[in-house]
Amino acid sequence: MSRILVIDDEQVIRRLMCEILERAGHETVAAETSDEALAELEDDRIVLVVSDIVMPGLTGLELLEEVRARRPSLPVILVTGAGTYENLSQAVTRGADGLVIKPFSHADLQNAVAAALERARRTEHDVRERLLAPTLAAALANAIEARDGELQGHCERLAVLAVRIARELGLPHVAVERIRLGALLHDVGKIGVPDHVLRKNGTFTDEERALMQIHPLIGDRLLEPLDFLPDVRAIVRHHHERWDGAGYPDRLAGEAIPRAARIVSVADAVEAMSAPRRYRAPLGRSMIVSELRAGRGTQWDAAVVDVALGLIERGELRFAGDGVRLSTGDAPTPTDEREQSVLLVDNDDDAAEKAAASIERAVEHVRVVHAKDIRSATELCRSSRWALALVDDTLPDGDGLEFLRAVKERTPSLPVLMLTSEGAEATAIEAFRRGAADYVVKSNGYGAEVGERVRAVLEAVT
Ligand SMILES: [Fe+2]
Q: Helix H segments across 148-284?
């Protein structure tokens, strides 16, 4: 049950809001003044705040800042009278997580609360997946490599290759990122294999081979407590399965093997062949190509092998005697690390040009990419990582609000700035409801203003 703090100086409204929220299954705590509210905030069971904007003492906007200072990730929904357009903009700029316009229906309030709670949950999940998981994966990969000196850099290099193959196959960004983690962690179970087996130079006895072959199972079990790594666990468990069903540990065959594991399996083999081992020199290009061709459709998925062969053929995947090299690698240059990419979706070329110039003037190290319709913007959202998106409300192939909803569902943490026509207050309000970070009225100083708004939003999220 979620405990929600409801703040309104009018008793009737306060009671009404509490009743609506309790009917939706939440527990409520009511506060009449901002002082009372701040005292209640000491209770860390409170997961969301619903506050009136206009109150004696601190206004809702000031209270929002106090809440942000005390509990930065606590979602706040502000309630305001209709027509207070300036309030709306300020509320969102200062980081409100939702707005409810008076008079409101039960559904308005319940939906705003449900959406804010869901966004908070997804943001937390996102943070864990995007920040914690890569850090953990890199640390564990280092631990595996530290036990076996000749694997130095192997996991990192094969992760770069696996990511490249996944992108060539057109996999979505989320799947590619999981493949990166799975590739880094694929051999984590070797932590549980005894040294005398792991470091052995000669041929394995049957018993030693059996010990070695349980490493995917150990890895899978090791990662079990990490609930944010389910797809990654499948890669760890199945990276030694074979397309013909003769692999281990589950003897899966063909498409029953998760595609991510099939990709990591090929990348692992190519990277291992291209690096020296205690018992053999690195294999050269022609040997690797013939090994790949020999195992195509028996050991490995033919479609994945074909991508690897294509990269070798085009000279993009090379072998330097100590592991694979990709010519257009993943490692960002220092400039890339600072650079933020902004997606601008607007079919009006003139307006887009002015907006891009304004953003480039206001924000350092920014790259503005222009899409003219929802179709191409959706494609760009799939294939790249964005710091912010600006979306016109009317686009040739659909409604900007619909696109906004789809974007927020897919990437809840991506700030979206809505571009609206003059007088389209309803659109701006709806945009806020669907999670927009701010709006800019196009016909009113659109070019000059938009850069500043983008800068403010980017500063607020970083
Ligand atoms: Fe392995």
A: 154-168, 173-185, 195-198, 206-212, 215-223, 230-238, 259-274
Q: For residues 47 and 74, is the Cβ–Cβ distance under 8 A?
A: yes
- What is the CA(129)–ligand 1 centre distance, in A? 23
Q: How far is the CA of 194 from the centre of ligand 1 (A)?
A: 14
Distance 317 CA to ligand 1 centre (A): 22
The full set of domain ranges for the chain reads 3-120, 148-326, 334-461
- Residue 178 contacts residue 231 (beta carbons within 8 Å): yes
- From the candidate CATH numbers 3.30.1330.10, 3.40.50.2300, 3.20.20.70, 3.40.50.1390, the one assigned to the domain spanning 334-461: 3.40.50.2300
Ligand 1 centroid, distance to 99 Cα (angstroms): 51
pLDDT of residue 363: 86
Query: What percent of the chain lies above the pLDDT cut of 70?
Result: 89
Tokens linked to 64: 């929002």
CATH number of 148-326: 1.10.3210.10
Q: If you measure from the C-alpha of residue 306 to the centroid of ligand 1, how many angstroms do you get, rounded to a whole number? A: 22
189 C-alpha vs ligand 1 centroid, how far in Å? 8
Could you read off the pLDDT of 125-156 as tens digits, one per residue? Answer: 666 666 567 777 777 777 777 777 667 788 88
Strands (E), 32-131: 46-52, 76-81, 98-102
> In angstroms, what is the span from residue 354 Cα to ligand 1's centroid?
53
Q: What average pLDDT score do residues 258-279 get?
A: 91
260 C-alpha to center of ligand 1: Å?
Answer: 14
Domains 3-120 and 334-461 share a fold: yes
For ion ligand 1, residues whose CB falls within 5 Å? 187
Q: 84: pLDDT confidence band, cut at 50, 70 and 90?
A: low
Question: Cα of 94 to ligand 1 centre, how many Å?
Answer: 49
Q: Which two tokens stand for residue 76?
A: 């706040």
**3-120 is classed CATH 3.40.50.2300:** yes
